[in-house]
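Weekly structure sync, notes
Attendees: PL, DS, HV (note-taker this week)

Item 1: Acyltransferase-like protein At1g54570, chloroplastic
DS walked through the input record. Source organism listed as Coffea arabica. Sequence as pasted into the shared doc:
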Amino acid sequence: MASLVSNLWAPSSFALTEFNPQSRAQIRCLAAQESSILSTDTVRLNEVSSAKEQERSIPMMDRGNGHLPAGGSTREKKKKGEEEVMQEKLEPLWDDGYGTRSVEDYMDSAKDVIKPDGGPLRWFSPIECGPPLKNSPVLLFLPGMDGVGLGLMLHHKALGRVFEVWCLHIPVKDRTPFEEMVNFVEETVRNQYASSPNKPIYLVGDSFGGCLALAVAARNPVIDLVLVLANPATSFNRSQLQPLLPFLEAIPIELHFTVPYLLSFVMGEPAKMAMVTVDATLPPRIALEHLAGKLTALLPHLSVLADIIPKDTLLWKLKLLRSAASYANSRLHAVTAEVLVLASGKDNMLPSGDEAQRLERSLRNCKVKYFKDNGHAILLEDGVNLLTVIKGTFKYRQSRKRDVVMDFLPPSDSEFKQALESNKIYRYLIGSVMFSTLEDGKIVRGLSGVPSEGPVILVGYHMLLGLELVSLVEEFLRQRKILVRGIAHPTLFSQLVETDSKEFTFYDTLKIYGATPVSATNLFKLFKTKSHVLLYPGGAREALHRKGETYKLFWPDQPEFVRMAAKFGATIVPFGVIGEDDMAELVFDYNDWMKIPVLNDYIRKKNEDWNFRARGHVAGEIANQELYMPGLLPKVPGRLYYLFGKPIQTKGRQDLLEDREKARELYLQIKSEVENSMAYLLRKRVEDPYRSILDRTAYRAFSAPIDQVPTFDP
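Item 1 (cont.): predicted structure, written out as tokens:
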């Protein structure tokens, strides 16, 4: 076997693919959980000589010559005759691996990766990142001050399913000037653009890497780049560390071992780092014990920072940071790329919160997400799943223009668990009960009556403020692993719902769970992809109804969805839901607010600013979709009840396409089914001995979890 070109150490977590710098031909590949070698010769990787030793590792693929080849962003091909399996899409509740890696893993891996090899800058790809979905875009990770390139350790598995992930490694002894680094990354970006001009290229820049990403973007305004900047170091001249810099430069080399411990508490929030692998569902006392153990285990690993950043490297990196910040700031006006800034509220190294606001003002297309409890090393801390943030801000796409249906990534198992944990109090309060109707007309508890195979469209009543929405989506995922994609008002996808705090909100969560702006095009695509669709014909008028209108349907006269459902042979499932009158009393509605001077002008002006007419062509009461916030008086919570009616088949119903009157008849039948379902539930709920939260609480205390509390017999 040919000799190795680059001796980048393969720690207990990595295996390498080597390339000859002249021919760029693949010589050897050791894939994840596999130890097949393309030659019988023994190859030594810094004294690790056997395949058996290698397979105890988390694999890595390394580019010995530094560069990715043109068109070579794809993971290296397997041996001849073996086809690479690439998925077309992800299934709901897929395993993203988040919470299985920690900062300890980063330290352990970094300890081996940083061993001197005399090599230049180079790209590597952790094999645990793949294989990605078909047509996935390239993601280039640009590291922070450490230069190791393992800053995405917590996110490798998740990102690797939807991106071609390559990470930049800057060796400890490397002294490449900043502009040469820009040239190096720029060459890679231009090669990728030349091979796939219609795909975006993602640059994830951590701290120093943020400056590098901005510099490359400024010099390449024509290339479709998406920048994700985690606490970018463009504010280095205003760093809280400035008074300490003379001390760091003057400290004797014998005392340099103390610097990592200082930097570790400056660069990150130790508690947030330790919390990554602590199960959030544990009881508080046990969770605290686990956290204490993780913090204690973390401390011995901090000494690795002294090897990652020895004194001479530290001095060089400080100069490099000054140069990088100055270079990037002088070129912000030239950046046309899409930019997402992640800013920490407890960054003790940089004024990241203020800097994010400055960048938002200075850049043409910049969005900010603020994480008030995180420190500088945000990508290694708990509470920030990078892929979740990218999805929630609508930044993931596989082509030049984002397609809200085709580019959608379903929620992962860790995202769902996080949602369940966040909503547990709400679930406890509403105690929702689901019923469905089988083909023979029998009503049963649970969702077994709803077809598994799409396309399916759930059509029903939209409760006040959409109180029913969270539980409906959660239960379909929990009971059936079916993701229901809601058709939503366009306002929810606009800047108008952004809060001043820039924190992750409920509206971002809606996007993660598949909420889709209402349009005929989007409904067409959802049917085409055999999705389960959630449609409220009454829309905002129903969800923001007035006093005395509880459980009243405000549906348009036209059968908007029936003919399209018939075109794709979709199954229509009408459903009713009740319980809002057991949760709160509507004391101030739209008519009440409009009687108050000044406030009425404010509401009217807001609706003019929003100017979203999802049904501008529709006449009548349904067209009055003014948005406002109802005034509610909470009650002692009762219970939400859902009934999904007997599925209505449209497959083979050519008459629905050819005869509008037939379509209208079916439309009125569906509307009647929804009204009958609500009437049935209103009649039956009086038989429920656990309708009150007080009775459910007593039952749970002695008998069962919330989803097993009994109800009436259907």
